[in-house]
Amino acid sequence: MTSFLASSRVPMLLVLVLFTLTSLTGSSLGNFYQDFDIIWGDWRAMILNDGELLNLNLDQASGSGFQSKNEYLFGKIDMRLKLVPGNSAGTVTAYYLQSKGSAWDEIDFEFLGNLSGDPYILHTNVYSQGKGEKEQQFYLWFDPTADFHTYSILWNPQRIIFYVDGSPIREFKNMESIGVPFPRYQPMRIYSTLWNADDWATRGGLVKTDWSQAPFTASYTSFNASNACVWINGASSCDSNNFSPPAWLSEDLDSTNLDKLQWVQTNNMIYNYCTDAKRFPQGFPLECNMS
């Protein structure tokens, strides 16, 4: 759809109205044929079940990956994933938003594989203007390889919230007022890759990928970006005069979700850059000093 819109002579107002109507009618779950392009790995990335399922595979020769056809500037985006089962040590399944250029913005979910029976590590990060170093890591409270689970990103001008099965696990607030960059100006595509990172992914690189277990497979379904602002030809689908701003564009965490966030961070967080004094001997980043 993006290539058609970019090349057609349909007036931009009509384009924006079409996307507005799609949003207002609550479009159903996405189709991988319509919404994504395979960008890496040839046959190792496979769209199945009439576009309802996508599998990424990793073998010793190559990993694989895909990207969204659309770019987005703010949104609430859901994807259901089932991660590599068994001995996944050395593998990384990444699911993230990223803009273009050397001063890019990025919002990351990364799933670090582990030996059979050991928990996955969910690694999160936020980049703005090419600078990240805002990592938080978690153990999940379920087996992410046994079934599909929903991983969501809420990104609006005030905050970024990471959700797992509807429960918030991390909030990164816009603190530009104190000099902390926030990803607010660059549209981003959705990407996902499955790749070998056994030089660092599992126990700091001590555990290597067991290629006798290959191919490794991660599966995706139920993509939903109906609550997102599509960026086309320098304009947002949310800027139409006919568009009524949705609730998610100013969404905050209510008291119930704040309690859920606190529970996850107390019981399942295993690393927080804001408490790593050895890493920041000259003082923590500015946002770490805010409550």
Q: Could you give a short description of this structure?
A:
The protein is mainly beta and 291 residues long.
- How would you classify the helix and strand content by structural class? mainly beta
CATH class: Mainly Beta
Total count of strands? 16
Q: Order of strands side by side in the largest beta sheet? A: 1-4-13-6-7-8-9-16
Order of helices and strands: HHHEEEEEEEEEEEEEEEHE
Q: What is the share of helical residues?
A: 10-25%
Number of domains: 1
Uncertain runs with pLDDT below 50, 5 residues or more? 1-27
Strand content: 35-45%
Total count of helical runs of at least 4 residues: 4
Biggest β-sheet description? 8 strands, antiparallel
Shape: globular
Question: Averaged pLDDT, please?
Answer: 88
Q: Write the CATH fold name.
A: Jelly Rolls
Family: Belongs to the glycosyl hydrolase 16 family.
Glycosylation sites: 114
Organism: Salix brachista
GO molecular function: hydrolase activity, hydrolyzing O-glycosyl compounds; xyloglucan:xyloglucosyl transferase activity
Explain the overall architecture.
With 291 residues, the protein is mainly β. It has a single domain, classed as Jelly Rolls. 12% of the residues lie in helices and 38% in strands. It is built from four helices and 16 strands. It has helices at 2-7, 12-24, 32-35, 255-267; strands at 36-40, 45-48, 53-58, 64-68, 71-82, 91-98, 106-112, 121-127, 136-139, 149-156, 159-164, 167-173, 189-196, 216-232, 235-236, 269-272. The strands form two sheets. Strands 1-4-13-6-7-8-9-16 form an eight-stranded antiparallel β-sheet. Strands 2, 3, 5, 10, 11, 12, 14 and 15 form an eight-stranded antiparallel β-sheet that branches. β7 and β8 (121-127) form a beta hairpin. It is globular and about 55 Å long. It starts with a helix and ends in a 19-residue tail after the last strand.
